[in-house]
Request: fold
Amino acid sequence: MIEEQKSIGVTPAELVEKVQVLFNDGWRLVQIGCTRLENGLELNYSFDKHYQFFNLKVAVALSNPEVPSISPVYWSAFIYENETQDLFGIKFPGLVLDYKGSFYKTSVKNPFNSCSEQINIKDIKKDLAL
Amino acid sequence: MTKRTIIPFGPQHPVLPEPVHLELAVEDGKVVEAIPSVGFIHRGLEKLVEKKDFFDFVFVAERICGICSFIHGMTYCMVIEEIMKLEVPDRAQYLRLVWSELSRLHSHLLWLGLMADAFGFESLFMHCWRLREKILDIIEETTGGRVIFGSCKVGGVRKDISADTLDRIVKVLHEYEREIKEITDVFIADGSVKHRMSGVGVLSKEDAYHLGAVGPTARGSGVDFDMRKLRYGAYKNISFAPVLETAGDCYSRCHVRIRELFQSIDLIDQAARKIPAGPLEIKVSGFPEGEFFARTEQPRGEVIYYAKANGTKFLQRLRVRTPTFANIPALVKILQGCDVADVPVLILTIDPCISCTER
Reply:
């Protein structure tokens, strides 16, 4: 094991309050990432303090993909939230610098907001041969 | 009332041949605000894990970047190994360390050359890249590749370095050390170089920390933060302390990279003396199931690989947070208050890699 990684789940409504506590306690925002699950989206907010890793998990419903922005607390979060907004279509009300979907110039809107296509390996080999 | 002018910088600029755009709000020749814009060539490589066998994806991970390619591949392997609870053999861990530090050496020498070119010192640029070629020769000799090493795999490494070759590499690196010192002394002591970088683009320790800066950008501001202190792989057996500078200006960031050149040679030397005999890899069977965040230190700073696996040959999600991406908020802060003429040099001091950012 490289390092212990603690992770807890929070609701979108609790998020900003929890993040403010971490900020006041001197934690550094490491990254925000998103995963498309079968029935929703999962956001990971990762923090570090003295090489300790801590993660907040937020489940987001597909019907209302909206999570309050933490950029008023961690200004640097704007870059991760704009990325997530463009790739997954989650809205972040309160975002301090909102690119409104133009942060990434993708040809497809929200390209990562689709479930994994479990393609058969034979199909891939066939594609590669072509 | 001072007139505000908006100056577009990039995405095509002579100093930075990679596509990043900045909208610079300027008053009286000073930048008062900078709005960054990336995403011109976003490749969506993270999405490819859904169609590519997890074992083969290391080849894609290495191609995220053409400079720190090996560490991308290694960190990808580490996240899979952690999820699958694989014990990588010690010899493989030491070889990974050697190739990681060779990557750092060639990346920092490349950056020093680009920096010299940016402030118009062409002969210095050529000397830096001449020395970088010698490091690339070592990489080519040990892996067969100069940019893409292809030597790392899930469960270990594909290639070995014999004891004789390793001893010779260490000897050669110590010879290069003298040449590197001769060149880097120009960066440290030359009046014109110092004048161009000293006191320019200051990032305070507090700002560096709260804006999530990583690598030499953070360490140049005195933030004691180097992922190698997590003691992953063979780093747990090596004596090492992060290189820190405290002024937070361009000169500090440059000085951190210069000192890290000598540190990397020392780490390779230590590894060559301690590397044990033994297997290069372990057999990998089954599919990964679980999730993990692997963190390592690239030449530009902390890189994070997050993988979520569901027990099939395809990962459910791979997320790569690259150091340049993390340093963009700090860059915006550094640019505030600087002269327009200093903008290209300031951008270079975070050593931006847009290829990584557009993974």
Remarks:
- Confidence is low (pLDDT under 50) at residues 117-122 of chain A.
- The interface with chain B takes residues 1-3, 5, 28-31, 33-37, 44, 46, 51, 53, 55, 74-76, 78-79, 86, 97, 99, 102-106, 111-112, 116-119, 121, 124 of chain A (CB under 8 Å).
- The CA atoms of residues 44 and 57 of chain A lie 5 Å apart.
